[in-house]
Amino acid sequence: MSTLKVDTLQTTGGAGLYPARAWVNYDMTTVSLLGSGNISSLTDGGTGIATLAFSTSLTAATYSFTTCGYHQTNLSNIRNLCQQEADSQLTSSSTLRMLSNSSGGLDAAFNKASWTL
User: Fold this and answer.
1) Residue 77 DSSP class
2) Which end of the chain is more exposed for a tag (fewer CB within 10 A), N or C?
3) 91: left (phi over 0), alpha (psi -120 to 50) or beta
4) pLDDT tens-digit profile of 12-44?
5) Strand stretches in 1-117, DSSP E
6) DSSP 8-state class, residue 38
7) pLDDT the model gives residue 55
8) Does the pTM of the predicted model rise above 0.70?
9) From CA 7, how far away is CA 30, in angstroms rounded?
10) CA distances in angstroms from 3 to 6, 56, 60, listed in the order given
11) Separation of alpha carbons 4 and 16, rounded Å
12) DSSP 3-state assignment of 89?
């Protein structure tokens, strides 16, 4: 297998490209990683709370992310994966919470979630 190493990615027109720094697909019913990049572990922090540790720390803790989560038996109730102000957003890890749109509270019954940074 070959390895490609670069310092900067650009389009042919010179615009910068910014690939994901980490991604994960996880299952909280079994507290397991289904697939990931730059994620070393998943920790169950209680009802609807997960902490993801990065394999390689980020350069700053001011990152943003996109997410998706769902409840396997209740597809009409959308779930949102978010961070609260009190959650740790560190260069080495990130704590996320799964919220139910119907109740607004933490959701203990969610099954799977995906997160990209």
Assistant:
1) S
2) N
3) alpha
4) 998 988 888 888 888 877 888 889 999 999 998
5) 23-27, 32-37, 39-44, 49-54, 66-70, 79-82, 93-100, 112-116
6) S
7) 95
8) yes
9) 38
10) 10, 17, 26
11) 17
12) strand
